[in-house]
Design a protein that fits this description.
The protein is an alpha/beta fold and 153 residues long. It has two domains: 3-78; 93-152, Roll (Chitinase A, domain 3). It is built from four helices and seven strands; from the N terminus they run αβααββββαββ. It has helices spanning 3-10, 30-52, 56-75, 126-131; strands at residues 27-28, 77-78, 93-98, 103-109, 120-122, 139-142, 145-152. Strands 5-4-3-7-6 form a five-stranded mixed β-sheet. Strands 1-2 form a two-stranded parallel ribbon.
Length: 153
């Protein structure tokens, strides 16, 4: 292969497609907004370092992620949980019992802050939607399971 051909293609900048942004309102908790803002700061620093190092691939990747998180920070709507509401809602910590007897507790949060492994689920997820508006003692049929609401905080 000709060296001229290789040199010609070294100047091509990697153009990554933008990350998809949810069609749902960007509801967040105060903690969720803080996480988004921290991610914007982290990515801005990483992007600057990638530019300084003239790392085109890393520059493109951080630029794409920075666009996503900046858009999410701009569109974020903080939702404060209603005080004294005993029903399941955005921001609630819910304890449930499945028909198998297994108990679980999780908090309903925004899409970007959800992490089921850490006990948070997105408000647009099927389980959160099924439980929304329910109270302690209510039983919800969910897929092949029956779920009882044990506590709402």
């Amino acid at each position: 292969m000709s060296r001229a051909f290789v040199k010609e293609h070294e100047d091509i900048v990697v153009d990554l497609p933008d990350r998809l942004i949810s069609e749902h309102p960007n509801l967040v908790t105060r903690e969720g907004l803080a996480q988004i803002e921290a991610e914007v700061r982290r990515l801005a620093a990483e992007h600057a370092a990638a530019q300084e190092a003239e790392d085109r691939e890393r520059t493109a990747a951080t630029a794409r992620d920075l666009r996503y998180w900046t858009a999410r920070a701009t569109s974020a709507e903080i939702v404060a949980p209603p005080v004294g509401d005993k029903r399941v809602h955005f921001g609630s910590t819910v304890t449930i019992e499945r028909s198998s007897g297994r108990k679980q507790a999780f908090r309903i949060v925004g899409e970007d802050e959800a992490n089921p492994a850490k006990g948070t689920i997105p408000y647009v997820g099927p389980l959160a939607r099924a439980l929304s508006g329910k109270e302690v003692g209510d039983v919800v049929r969910f897929a092949e399971d029956e779920i009882e609401v044990l506590a709402v905080e």
